[in-house]
Amino acid sequence: xxxxxxxxxxxxxxxxxxxxxxxxxxxxxxxxxxxxxxxxxxxxxxxxxxxxxxxxxxxxxxxxxxxxxxxxxxxxxxxxxxxxxxxxxxxxxxxxxxxxxxxxxxxxxxxxxxxxxxxxxxxxxxxxxxxxxxxxxxxxxxxxxxxxxxxxxxxxxxxxxxxxxxxxxxxxxxxxxxxxxxxxxxxxxxxxxxxxxxxxxxxxxxxxxxxxxxxxxxxxxxxxxxxxxxxxxxxxxxxxxxxxxxxxxxxxxxxxxxxxxxxxxxxxxxxxxxxxxxxxxxxxxxxxxxxxxxxxxxxxxxxxxxxxxxxxxxxxxxxxxxxxxxxxxxxxxxxxxxxxxxxxxxxxx
Amino acid sequence: xxxxxxxxxxxxxxxxxxxxxxxxxxxxxxxxxxxxxxxxxxxxxxxxxxxxxxxxxxxxxxxxxxxxxxxxxxxxxxxxxxxxxxxxxxxxxxxxxxxxxxxxxxxxxxxxxxxxxxxxxxxxxxxxxxxxxxxxxxxxxxxxxxxxxxxxxxxxxxxxxxxxxxxxxxxxxxxxxxxxxxxxxxxxxxxxxxxxxxxxxxxxxxxxxxxxxxxxxxxxxxxxxxxxxxxxxxxxxxxxxxxx
Lengths: 349, 244
Fold this sequence. Notes:
Largest sheet of chain B: 7 strands, mixed
Number of domains of chain B: 1
Mean pLDDT of chain B: 97
Low-confidence stretches of chain B: none
Largest interface: A-B, 38 and 32 residues
Order of helices and strands of chain B: HEEHEHHEEEHHEHEHHE
Mean pLDDT of chain A: 97
Low-confidence stretches of chain A: none
Number of helices of chain A: 13
Radius of gyration of chain A: 21 Å
CATH superfamily of the largest domain in chain A: Thiamin diphosphate (ThDP)-binding fold, Pyr/PP domains
Structural class of chain B: alpha/beta
Helix content of chain B: 25-40%
Strand content of chain A: 15-25%
CATH superfamily of chain B: Thiamin diphosphate (ThDP)-binding fold, Pyr/PP domains
Number of strands of chain A: 13
Radius of gyration of chain B: 17 Å
CATH class of chain B: Alpha Beta
Oligomer: heterodimer
Largest sheet of chain A: 7 strands, mixed
Order of helices and strands of chain A: HEHEHEHHEHEHEHEHEEHEEHEHEH
Number of strands of chain B: 9
Distance between the termini of chain B: 40 Å
Distance between the termini of chain A: 42 Å
CATH class of the largest domain in chain A: Alpha Beta
Helix content of chain A: 40-55%
Number of helices of chain B: 9
């Protein structure tokens, strides 16, 4: 299955009640797949008039306690930022898939990781965060969907699954099966009609003095809880590594091959692969930076995730970049070359 | 003794934040009475707009949500599609529905969403300080049309209800006003009909436009504002059952 269809089916299995979306390349297979599958399941599918409308349809369905999602690609995700800020303010659970393409502007339809800043810094207006998952295979992309819905429901937060044009289009064997849900809190805040209870209000306007500050502190407490409990990352051959590649998503998939080849030549190199991009595995990178090592961030941008690596390393070790923006994809050879240059420079071998 | 008037329990007993002579209070009461009379308080979900009526949930005792400016029909679509047995309405002003949210209302109507829309037209942006709205009358002085609205450069009053009535996806469109007791009675009848259609599963969107006074930003005393609706607004926005 291609990544787009695999994640769509995984969402259906995870109990997605409603999908709303607007066509944009390279994620069109999701919308097309959902139009068929959601109808088969007797669930809700709406092709919206814009991404603005799509995210607000998600907002409406989520407010009634349903599991709702949308998907898009970079320019469409920009349009959704207003709604995502409102989702954060109203503390509604939602799942948003971004199959990234090149930018800025209309950019191109080639794979990219240029939306890292937008995804991990919130993107819309105001003081908020949301969870970002960065899978690096079709299987992991599919596995992210039940996790995303669970995290969204548990923390009443938006979870973005950040893929790219390669992951969306690439075909791989994939196992899709129902996963048990986490124990989740009841949605007693949902708008279900005030039968047997008082009025529920879903809002993001807090005009009274100090009321919004209080909300922001409450959100921050929630963010801290997520930082403490939900970080996912993979550490690959780092025990004796003197060079540590940091990469996520499809860039990590390519970098892994470069690490393996360099290891075959005796180069002590490993990789830390963030799976949650927010919360970022800062503690794991910080721990790795306790002994002197060279860090190499490999990403499909001019350098975005590298800022989080530097924040975690706190100046203790050099952090370098191998970045390919605008739809450029780093090849195994060029990453391997970069590792070799670092080896010579740092005297690692 | 026979009770001839009482407060509907769907309207909360609390002080209003609206200006003296504002039409929102009347419109809220009509809405609340209709919800009580149709016995749908326990399955109604309301959507408040961005604008003066953003706090509508402080008055209307039903489950409610606050949404981004203009997006109410999209939010309502998400709610109604996933909760077909609930009664979903949006309450939107002219800035919300006729300016920033034209795409959302047009496409909700176009998709024949089974929603009820209460469209409050007071020819001005109230909350932000009386700027020109798409429905501002030609010649009307606002904070952003100090010499009065000119058709050249600022366009004509936008007749959204007439546009929506043309679409096959609307089942019912009526324009009412709050400018006199008979008009108010008619407005209530229209609101009730619009809700009844949704309850009956009528295949499309029902919309009631209500010409409503904004004495503060029309710079008129409340009584004169009511007269201005009749004398001025109804020329660009004729009171009529436009469809259904």
